[in-house]
Amino acid sequence: MTTYDAGEFTLQKVREYVWEIPQEDEMRVPARVLASEELLDEISEDLSLQQLKNTTHLPGIQKYALAMPDAHQGYGFPVGGVAGIDTENGVISPGAVGYDINCGVRMMKTNLTYSDIQGREQELVDALFEAIPSGLGGGGVVQTDVDTLAEILERGVEWALEEGYAVEDDLTHCEDEGVRPGADADAVSKKAKDRGRQQLGSLGSGNHFLEVQRVTDVYREDVAERFGLEEDQIVVLIHCGSRGLGHQVCTDYLREIEKTHEGLLEQLPDKELAAAPAGSHLAEEYYAAMNAAINFAWVNRQLIMHRTREVFADVFDRDWRDMEMELLYDVAHNIAKKETHTIGDEDRELFVHRKGATRAFPAGHPEVPAAYRDVGQPIIIPGSMGAGSYVLRGGENSLAETFGSTAHGAGRLMSRTEAKNTYWGEDVQDDLRETQEIYVKAQSGATVAEEAPGVYKDIDEVVRISDELGIGDRVARTFPVCNIKG
């Protein structure tokens, strides 16, 4: 097959698993989808392809707009989308980052094995659910005043280290060492701060979760050894973001950009792609506020990890250090960052927008933590609560193909409304426990229904495409043991 008919769009096959909507009319670059035909069938069922094509209209966009294998419809810009946009003559777009700024994942290792957990799953899931705030609204591990929150927004995980919620290794095993430079608390509105102040150290709702997992498969033993992973090992995966603070930052700047740069907005096919010209006051302000929200999210996940260490210590009556509960890595998947990439024959600074896409820098890249620089950056891709998750490493083709990016998860097949009409939460919980020995606890049955395994694409296929394309190489697979959700 050299073309793929997606109704309104005909995609040209560039090579295996790489499909392109050719540049035409007002498009500034082509649009590329990285997928198998099986995944294309699913991607083409919603507005993902239209949104991807719309993205090519953004001023300053370079090479092509990209959709990762897990792509699905989002707000203006598809989830699973990547765009590299020139920082001098381009734009920055809040919609191409998303409302949950620095939604991301971190994985913590332990020296426990699955046999250490078996028989204690219910005790552990109950203790985690009791200790870690989840769901809509307020409640967090710590409550902060205005001055403390400003410090968190500007210093990130450095604040957590100083306050005893982190150790040095937590910073060195986090993207950007847990702090984005250029963050400015003054660029974050009072309303955003008020929403976030009581939510530090909380999962939130929706697809956010904490999951205890066991390593079931190792694909690259040398890399897994460097990551500290082996079969039958227990690990903990945390998936959440910047809570109400990040959502409000996105809302605030979208509205301001729509009003201030109305002329630019009229040139775009979708107002949800509202963007501020590089170098403008609003572009600079949004970038500073976004970086502050990124720092907030890293502290949020750090506090959840700190509380998880305490829970494990209580349940297993051992110090968390004795259980070697160490951070493998933390990586963002809703973010725009200034990065230098090769375009043609020259290096150029770009705003690399990754919305539901994960940074995937290869071995040797200076921004990969020193501990992993010779094997490549760890990538963590969660599946559904009834399927495996994956640890990958940045592939050698990622910089040339995807601005150093790959997928961020399985990608949704169903809307939340459709999921609740299809599944009954208690039935999903019972089925997972009885057939797969997966223990799930959530604030409501509706949340479980919205996140039922059947709601998501095939994570194995998503990761296979990443591996085949050399943008993110499979290292290990994990499988759920117990899961808490909002």
Automatic annotation (TrEMBL):
Positions of the catalytic residues: 408
Single GO term (MF): GTP binding
Binding site for GMP: 207-211, 333-334, 382-385, 389, 408-411, 485
Region (Disordered) location: 176-202
Cofactor: Mn(2+)
GO biological process: tRNA splicing, via endonucleolytic cleavage and ligation
Its EC number(s): 6.5.1.-
Binding-site list for Mn(2+) 2: 239, 333
Positions bound to Mn(2+) 1: 100, 208
Biased composition (Basic and acidic residues): 187-197
Cofactor note: Binds 2 manganese ions per subunit.
Keywords recorded for this protein, A-Z: GTP-binding, Ligase, Manganese, Metal-binding, Nucleotide-binding
Pfam family, one: RtcB
Enzyme class name: ligase
Domain of life: Archaea
Function: Essential for tRNA splicing and maturation. Acts by directly joining spliced tRNA halves to mature-sized tRNAs. Joins RNA with 2',3'-cyclic-phosphate or 3'-phosphate ends to RNA with 5'-hydroxy ends.
Name under which the protein is recorded: tRNA-splicing ligase RtcB
Lineage summary: Archaea, Methanobacteriati, Methanobacteriota, Stenosarchaea group, Halobacteria
Gene name linked to the record: rtcB
